[in-house]
Design goal:
The protein is of the alpha/beta class and 552 residues long. It contains 15 helices and eleven strands. It has a domain of 54 residues.
């Protein structure tokens, strides 16, 4: 026991002179320091009987145990916050073999006299250094010819040429399109139309615009949308960029363009949603975003949500939804038809958020598929405080992912068989380890929470073993919201609920274009050009997987 003087507050009163009793507590994971504060002039109660001594010891032990749990919890929080502020966000371990360093050594313990050795041979590709990638062939070429002066060519003949290429860039050009509509009037006063009425002034019609009576053409609208929702540029930066080109475009005008385009594309987004609902499995996730709240007060913010819904391989679409909170009403309303009835009964792959729970019971009838990436993340966040058990858990999960990478090209039926033969024993080993480790881990520690998280999802996490059409995780959906997470670092918040819905529409168009390997700018410019004049019955041609690239 070591006593140190300090200042403490006891029952609301400052105690100028007190001591801290440092007690070292030995645990199976690490050593913890528990603090016991006593005023310097106070003396611990002296037991007079055995029962009093046992009571004091029991109280002290309970206090130390509680403080030990608090210390473990705080250590985990400090480690997580330190990583969020200063560390790498990637969950990849520095050494691919690190996950095997802490595996149990029971197999080697029985034969210490004859350690096992093995020879490992492998091939690796040696990277080519100093060799740059060729310039793409699809880029236009402009030739610059260099020749010798005439006096040097007097006694020479041309035998060939040497060609070298360099990339050049021209700043984006902004120009004005003048829409000139000819007007016609009657040739004389006696000119009549087919009904016998006098012909008045007739003006040639111009095709409808994406933004009626708006300043921007389709190309400019596409550039603004791609810059904000794909390249993550806030509108005030776009305002400065256009000003450098000699054009003053107010942020308020660009905000109105976003909302107007969101309204224009509503029928197309409805078709994309119908395509996703035809999937065998739908992946979903959400991410927070701040929104200005006029009701709360000037400058106040409230936390809203972007929800991402991703279809399977046969339905390569992503549709985003915007809600004012994270209540279960968000996903429930998305899975309702126009009559308010549930319209999806397949597999839903998501995390353990309780807002999804009602979707897995009647009248919804969806089947929950867990995400092994979320389960692994819990152990990854706890690994600094509990390296041994966490690395062991991640090593087991890593073996599952290794199998998936090895057999990623198999057909669904063949993949199901492989998972049953090779992956299921690993999953069962993981559950057995979780049951054993749970009895030794503190429930409120990061390790205890990680184990309990996995056990609570035991059945959903194991469902992918029985269907080769299901993925091991919903990382595809997480990738779809990564752009929003990057973008909000720049544009920080949405201005209104209407702006949030319009942003969700643009994210949906650009995200679905990327899933189908379609260049977003060319795609948006084309649909902003042609869709205003296209009947609703024909807008399915603008679905990214059916789009023919008319506007190229």
């Amino acid at each position: 026991m070591i006593f140190h003087p300090c200042v403490a507050v006891v029952d609301g009163h400052e105690v100028k002179s007190c001591q801290i009793l440092w007690i070292t507590v030995r645990n199976w994971t690490s050593d913890f320091l528990a603090l016991w504060c006593l005023p310097s002039k106070m003396t611990p109660p002296t037991p007079t009987t055995l029962e009093e001594a046992q009571s004091i010891i029991h109280t002290l032990c309970a206090t130390i145990d509680q403080m030990s749990q608090d210390v473990v919890k705080l250590q985990g929080q400090v480690a997580w916050l330190t990583r969020q502020m200063f560390g790498r966000k990637s969950e990849r371990l520095p050494d691919p073999k690190q996950g095997h360093l802490f595996e149990p050594l029971e197999e080697e313990a029985g034969d210490e006299a004859k350690p096992k050795t093995e020879t490992v041979q492998y091939e690796r590709r040696v990277p080519e250094r100093g060799k740059r990638k060729p310039i793409p062939d699809h880029l236009p070429r402009r030739d610059k010819v260099y020749d010798l002066p005439e006096d040097q060519k007097a006694n020479l003949k041309r035998i060939g040429e040497e060609i070298s290429e360099e990339l050049e860039y021209e700043a984006a050009s902004i120009y004005v399109i003048r829409h000139i509509r000819y007007k016609y009037g009657p040739a004389d006063e006696m000119t009549l139309d087919a009904s016998g009425e006098s012909i008045g002034v007739v003006v040639a019609q111009k095709p409808p615009s994406a933004i009626e009576k708006g300043l921007a053409g389709p190309g400019l609208l596409a550039q603004v949308m791609v810059s904000k929702f794909s390249d993550h540029l806030p509108l005030y930066r776009l305002e400065r960029i256009f000003k450098r080109h000699g054009v003053d475009l107010a942020r308020s005008s660009m905000c109105r363009w976003v909302q107007g385009l969101g309204t224009l594309c509503t029928p197309l987004l409805a078709l994309m949603k119908d395509q996703i609902l035809g999937s065998h499995v739908i992946q979903t996730d959400d991410t927070p975003v701040k929104q200005q709240s006029g009701e709360v007060g000037r400058g106040k913010m409230k936390i809203c949500r972007f929800w991402s819904y991703v279809g399977d391989g046969a339905h390569p679409y992503v549709v985003y939804a915007y809600t004012g909170d994270r209540s279960r009403a968000g996903p429930e309303n998305w899975f309702r038809n126009t009559q308010g009835e549930p319209n999806f009964g397949g597999y839903l792959q998501c995390d353990a958020y309780v807002g999804y729970d009602r979707l897995f019971v009647p009248p919804w009838g969806m089947t929950h598929v867990g995400c092994w990436a979320h389960a692994r993340r819990k152990f990854f966040d706890a690994r600094l405080s509990f390296p041994g058990p966490c690395h062991h858990a991640m090593a087991l999960i890593g073996r599952l992912y290794k199998l998936e990478r090895r057999h990623k090209d198999l057909a669904p039926d063949a993949l199901t068989q492989v998972r049953q033969l090779e992956a299921r024993p690993i999953v069962e080993e993981f559950w057995q380890w979780c049951e054993t480790a749970r009895r030794e881990a503190l429930p409120k520690s990061n390790l205890g929470k990680a184990i309990q998280y996995a056990l609570n999802l035991r059945e959903p996490l194991g469902r992918y073993l029985d269907d080769g059409r299901l993925g091991i995780d919903n990382n595809g959906c997480e990738r779809s919201i990564r752009g929003i997470a990057i973008g909000r670092r720049n544009w920080l918040f949405t201005g209104s609920e209407a702006g949030g819905h319009a942003a969700a529409a643009m994210f949906s168009l650009i995200g679905s274009a990327r899933l189908n390997d379609v260049e977003p700018f060319v795609y948006l410019r084309d649909i902003f050009t042609r869709m205003p004049a296209t009947p609703i019955s024909q807008i399915d041609q603008f679905l990214p997987d059916r789009w023919t690239g008319h506007g190229r």
